[in-house]
Design goal:
Order of helices and strands: EHEHEHEHHEHEEHEEEHEEHEHHH
Number of domains: 2
CATH class of the largest domain: Alpha Beta
Strand content: 5-15%
Bound molecules: NADPH dihydro-nicotinamide-adenine-dinucleotide phosphate, guanosine-5'-diphosphate-rhamnose
Largest sheet: 7 strands, parallel
CATH superfamily of the largest domain: NAD(P)-binding Rossmann-like Domain
Shape: globular
Number of strands: 13
Helix content: 40-55%
Radius of gyration: 20 Å
Length: 340
């Protein structure tokens, strides 16, 4: 019998890659999405075209503030695995929408787990926890490091993390947290710093923009590729016991390093094109330094990332150049002209 997986956040970066991975592993995938005024299916259009008519991919509208919209689907389809990836995932925006962030990221996790407990206790549950929970705790951070969240987003993820542990410890659910450090890809949202940089650079070369306006570029992150991380997410639910795992590369770079690497690919002097400390992108409190220790996942799950920061940068830049009709070689030629 085919395994059935539910994915909230299927239209997002990780949800789309995870859906592809599970379909390749012969799962029946149910994508749970919210209603939006403009259909937002770009990241999953390819798999919709390929799998929906065969009944292997099914999409359902839900609302994370509406328990019965989720419960009805759990009762009807009895999933083997439930991946809770939906969230208000932008840390900077969470300072302006704290209450909604807690509702969607934390309370919805409680709603889903309570529904699984009452209706389908055998279902395994994955919670998309985050390195933002460590906040100001100095690196390296692992599963035992204390949490010191610095934003409404971080607080909401800590609450969801403990909610997941509570349903595991008190009620015996197979419920696991993946504590994932930053991971990016050509499918990353445009207002996260890495994608903003690669996408704006492609726009600069196409003549649509002159400069990239950034906030604090001295903060440091541990960046991996989403494709590597969704493989780890799946492995976490295949482990023999429900447990919490950090997924990270173990390497850490500043935002400035990322800018330099990206501009270097095209031989451009970044200082001419980047403006920093723009107040629109400064946060009331920052997470300054994240570097994960993922030894537990590497040992118990045999997970390890394939991409490093250079291959990640190149993948993202090439994809954004393609959006604007350019190959890497053509972009290098244009770069020579605009740097004169
Ligand atoms: P994205 O922002 O790309 O995707 C978020 C998904 O959540 C989208 O499908 C979005 O739908 C959906 N969503 C947001 N709000 C709601 C809502 N109110 N109701 C229903 N669906 C909603 O995030 P990622 O794919 O990068 O991240 C996946 C998860 O992992 C998130 O929970 C994130 O917080 C967490 N995480 C991410 C890390 C990263 O570096 N990427 C690191 C650690 C944790 P829509 O498309 O309609 O907007
Ligand atoms: P982060 O990612 O907050 O780590 O959360 P983001 O790319 O937004 O910021 C990383 C760092 O870059 C600094 N920064 C800027 N950030 C943005 N977005 N835009 C700018 O112009 C800019 N300039 C500087 C930020 O201040 C920050 O220090 C991501 C999300 O995917 C979360 O959902 C996830 O949980 C964590 O990663 C791990």
């Amino acid at each position: 019998m085919k395994k059935i997986a539910f994915i909230t956040g299927v239209t997002g970066q990780d949800g789309s890659y995870l859906a592809e991975l599970l379909l390749s592993k012969k799962y029946i995938v149910h994508g749970l999405l919210r209603r939006t005024s403009f259909l937002n299916l770009d990241r999953i259009q390819e798999i919709i075209d390929r799998y929906e008519s065969k009944g292997l991919l099914k999409l359902h509208y839900i609302d994370l503030t509406d328990t019965s919209s989720i419960t009805n689907l759990i009762i009807k389809y009895k999933p083997h695995e439930f991946y809770n990836l939906a969230s208000m995932s932008h840390v900077g925006i969470s300072y302006f929408t704290g209450e909604a962030t807690l509702n969607i990221n934390a309370i919805a996790t409680y709603r889903i787990l309570e529904s699984i407990l009452k209706n389908h206790k055998k279902c395994k549950f994955y919670q998309a926890s985050s390195s933002e929970m460590f906040g100001s705790t100095p690196p390296p951070q692992n599963e035992k490091s204390p949490f010191n969240p610095q934003s409404p987003y971080g607080i909401s993820k800590v609450a969801a993390y403990y909610t997941t542990r509570y349903f595991r410890q008190a009620h015996g659910l197979f419920a696991s947290n993946g504590i994932l450090f930053n991971h990016e890809s050509p499918r990353r949202g445009l207002n996260f710093v890495t994608r903003k940089i690669t996408h704006s650079l492609a726009r600069i070369l196409s003549g649509y923009e002159k400069k990239i306006y950034l906030g604090d570029i001295s903060t440091r992150r541990d960046w991996g590729h989403s494709k590597d991380y969704v493989r780890g997410i799946w492995m976490i639910l295949q482990h023999k016991r429900p447990e919490d795992f950090v997924l990270s590369t173990g390497k850490n770079y500043s935002i400035e390093d990322f800018v330099k690497k990206t501009f270097k690919i095209l031989g451009l002097n970044w200082k001419k094109f980047v403006s920093t400390n723009n107040k629109n992108f400064l946060r009331p409190s920052e997470v300054r330094n994240l570097q994960g220790n993922s030894n537990k996942a590497r040992k118990l799950l045999k997970w390890k990332p394939i991409y490093n920061l250079d291959t990640l940068c190149l993948d993202m830049l090439k994809s954004d150049l393609k959006l604007y009709g350019m190959t890497l070689e053509q972009a290098k030629e244009k770069a020579k002209k605009i740097s004169k």
